[in-house]
Amino acid sequence: MADVILSVEHLVKRFGTLTVLDQVSFELHRQEVVVICGPSGSGKSTFIRCLNGLEASDAGTIRFNGSIVTRKTFHDVRQHIGMVFQAFNLFPHLTAIENATISPIKILRRPKAEVMREVTALFEMVGLADKMHSHPHQLSGGQQQRVAIVRALALKPDVMLFDEPTSALDPEMIKSVLDVMRDLAKKGMTMIVVSHEMGFAKEVADRIAFFSQGNFREIKEPRQFFENAEHEDTRRFLGQILHP
Amino acid sequence: MWHWNILKILFVKGFLPTVKLVPIALVLALSVGIVGGSLRVLRVPLLNPILGLYAYVMRGIPTILLMFICYFVVPTGSNPMNAAILALVLSNGAYMMEIVRGGLEAIDRGQHEAAKAVAMNFWQSLRYIILPQAVLLVLPALVGQLVLLVKVTALASVIGYVELTKMALNLNGATMAPLPIFFYSGCFYFVVCHFLKWVADRCERVTKERIMGKAPIHVLA
Fold it and tell me: Is B221 inside any structural domain?
């Protein structure tokens, strides 16, 4: 396996007296796809939100590309981490293409023509070349989420984080989004995906993780994960979501 | 029967002095509103409770009392116009501050997070993401406040600033022709308020189209 791009040691996060992340340690390798599943309220979303500083951790270290990330350097690190939200969070006052280009052009100050070319190619890749000039409210949920993926990719990130990207979608929209993510994985993108799409996980993930009560209980390769889960909790959880 | 002389006197000695108050009070009150509202969102330690108290007090006392306070207590040089403007700015500024704050705070938390996630800092996200959306939310309420401001200028009469309402009252005493006097006065207020409303509606439509596209707008509601 290639080198480690993102690592976490003894990460702790509390909300008041509630410990949401309890000494979490984890390593993500380049070009690896990790799918995290687990019951709601287990802290898996909080975990990936900590990885790009949307949530400030209370203890522990996060390393990106070998160097420790602090509150001050999170801003720089975010340019290298793309984030896709459950609720899309597109900017409603901007068109699809403006959503994707505003940061590369206005914030990262890359040359406009180059950004436009790259982003147009990304829209073609996700099958939305004809929707680039639509506003988010003119798009379906699946289309909005694909725009959100393009917006994240426009930063040219090294890592992509997906926080339950298909949970807010109607069933018939889910496939279009998963297809794009599968495509990305095949192209070698490093990804962490919080999701309960076990079919997707089985096919695309290099490792699948079970997260519960504030920590990883189990991280295994897909076949091992489904066939030889060690923890009783994992097996019970899989039994609940893998209804025939 | 049209009482043209009454109309003329009302216009020159009543309407014009009223109009003189409006632009200055309006610009100042809006400034107080925008700056104060933004500061309240930031929750600057010492400043926030002070601004909160200011809004709290202003909402609890009648504007007419504020006129007296500004004229008799605050050293405004016994100039009724300055005192009136100060009172108008103080009270309307407080309301506008709360309107602006409400608009900024109404923007979904996901917008702040998405802006952060695409590497924007606080000021950049305010400028590119939050403010353009907040303006749309806030515009109708601000216009309502603005119309109120125009109507409340009538209270300046109690501290001796002769404007439209005071002039009407004086004329009434001298001519005993209440119907034309008060009818014309009403018309003046009516025209100004609805002119402002009309301008604001147009502004709103243009801004909406420019920042939200031409499709039906119910996303922000």
Answer: no
Instruction: With beta carbons less than 8 A apart as the criterion, state whether A182 and A105 touch.
Output: no
Going along chain A from its start, the domains and CATH numbers come out as 4-42+66-217 (3.40.50.300)
> pLDDT by residue (tens digit) across A152-164?
999 999 999 999 9
- CB within 8 Å: A75 and B136: no
Considering the domain boundaries, does residue B220 fall inside one? no
The side-by-side arrangement of strands in the sheet containing A4-15 is: A18-29, A4-15, A59-64, A67-68
Q: How many CB atoms lie within 10 A of CB B79?
A: 14
Q: Chain B: nearest CA to A159, how far in angstroms?
A: 12
Domain count, chain B: 1
Backbone angles phi, psi at A180, to 5 degrees: -65, -40
pLDDT at B220 over 60: no
The model's pTM: 0.81
Q: Which of B118, B126, B208 to mutate to test the interface with A (most CBs of A within 10 A)?
A: B118
Q: How many CB atoms lie within 10 A of CB B52?
A: 15
Q: Do B117 and A83 touch (CB under 8 A)?
A: yes
- Which residues of chain B lie closer than 8 angstroms to A108, CB-CB? 119
Alpha-carbon distance A45 to A24, whole Å? 13
Provide the domain limits for residue B43. 4-212
Nearest residue to A128 (alpha-carbon basis) of A170, A90, A79 = A90
